[in-house]
Amino acid sequence: MARFGSTILRFDTVSSTNDVARDLAASGKPEGLCVIAREQTAGRGRQGRSWSSPPGEGLYLSLILRPEIRAAESAVITLAAAVAVAETLRLDFHVPVDIKWPNDILAAERKICGILVESAIESGRLQYAVMGIGVNVAQRYFAADIGETATSLSLETGRILSPEDLLKPLLKRLEYWCTSATINPAVVIERWERLSSYARGCAVRIESADGSVEGLTRGLTPTGALIVGLSNGETREIVSGEVSLRRVDLVAEGGLHNHVTGP
Description:
2 domains, SH3 type barrels, 7-stranded mixed beta sheet, 6-stranded antiparallel beta sheet
């Protein structure tokens, strides 16, 4: 029997589905409980960025997870979510999406889905995680500030779709891949690498508070960090945290450059 989505709480408007699900998780609600809203007034993504959540035009959901893993291993949960979304859009809706590390889902180089996993940790172990997923489904137009960088399922398929069309197949794949993340995380890593053009041989720039580095990606570590080979022969393992990543054109920018101010 499916656990994910066995209980679905639906709201018309919330600040953020992650806020609602986090409160429920803290009160002891079980794994698989799903919170869905028609609209979010304060949807958010990684690094505190806002997530546009117009009423009825996107699938805005959060799931309670209680994986039996150490906090240091929890990054694979985010990768599992990205795999589940990418497979659903590719296989069920025939949209050739890409995964930008660690968890942005792109269609035609534009963002169609964002994922935010927030965790509660005690004594080095995950007490629970709240997995928030926002998928642009029915939007035909976007605000000017994201008009050049966002897309939707309806725009990519040319079909009139609703968020409910996506819900059932997505929950099924989320359960499969999140379970795999706790039993055999290597399978999740392998599948993520197959679905992402960013995984290997991609020239990228990583920017963080310590400066920026450029290099070629060399896959993921067993815990989900991105391996980047630098021009000086060194390799860096990049964890998501407070970093941003973008693809670079080596020809246009004259090769790889490293500008690291930290250790």
